[in-house]
Amino acid sequence: MGRLDGKVIVVTAAAQGIGRAAAIAFAKEGAEVIATDINESNLRELEGNAGIQIRLLDVTNKGQIEELAKEVKKIDVLCNIAGFVHHGTILDCDEKDWDFTMNVNVRSMYLMIKAFLPKMLEQKSGNIINMSSVASSIKGVVNRCVYSTSKAAVIGLTKSVAADFIAHGIRCNCVCPGTVDTPSLRERIQASPNPEQAMKGFLARQKTGRFATAEEVAHLFVYLASDESAYVTGNPCIIDGGWSM
Ligand SMILES: NC(=O)c1ccc[n+]([C@@H]2O[C@H](COP(=O)([O-])OP(=O)(O)OC[C@H]3O[C@@H](n4cnc5c(N)ncnc54)[C@H](O)[C@@H]3O)[C@@H](O)[C@H]2O)c1
């Protein structure tokens, strides 16, 4: 018996990194996963996995989100994982960078929750898991100005939804990782002027001496998606190898 048998779970940003690991872990535990992303070719790699159906979805596109919400007849868990990392201080962040990050990282979750929550309310049960970060209201991190602002907003959004709908059988939590070894982290390191130095810098801030794996973060998603966490809501769940302690 799987820990998520019979649950329908919608996942955003499922084509790579943590979203992909979460989608695979959910399906292994018996969930019916609707794995969404804008990257069709990466998404297709998930097609062979039992329990996973794929769907193109741009989380900044209100029309696409509403269409998907109409199609999905039952939803137990909504996982809002899509996010973008802008590198720099406030002085490096143009208005277009600010707007882009807030749009992908925060407005997307506002749109997704607004579209799927009515169905959860009808069902009198639902579970929302948002992706935040310890680079947020939890920890000041250099060169992550708009990113941290957006991830702090995700914590606020999470607590607010949890508080407003707790009496309706809805839970809402967020996951706050430290540094996770994903394709986009590798790309950011490679794109820096001195990749070797950048890798050392990223590793130096890890008290464990290593990054988290996407699969380790996926384990936390499975717990939050399952009924094992029925008493957990409004919680920013930190998984950072002690970075923020
Ligand atoms: N990797 C880390 O160290 C780390 C740490 C803390 C939090 N996070 C957060 O975890 C989440 C996933 O990060 P990751 O590093 O695992 O993934 P990633 O950056 O490697 O991949 C992101 C995925 O999001 C998709 N995506 C981008 N824009 C989209 C859009 N508009 N609509 C739908 N999908 C879109 C991409 O196609 C890609 O598949 C992000 O919210 C990120 O901020 C990551």
TrEMBL record:
Pathway: Amino-acid metabolism; Siderophore biosynthesis. One of its GO terms (biological process) is siderophore biosynthetic process. It catalyses: (R)-3-hydroxybutanoate + NAD(+) = acetoacetate + NADH + H(+). PROSITE patterns: ADH_SHORT (PS00061). Its EC number is 1.1.1.104, 1.1.1.30. One of its GO terms (molecular function) is 4-oxoproline reductase activity. CDD domains: DHRS6_like_SDR_c. Pfam families: adh_short_C2. The keyword Oxidoreductase applies. Keywords: NAD, Oxidoreductase. GO terms for cellular component: cytoplasm. SUPFAM superfamilies: NAD(P)-binding Rossmann-fold domains (SSF51735). The keyword Metal-binding does not apply. Belongs to the short-chain dehydrogenases/reductases (SDR) family. This is Dehydrogenase/reductase SDR family member 6. The lineage of its organism: Eukaryota, Metazoa, Chordata, Craniata, Vertebrata.
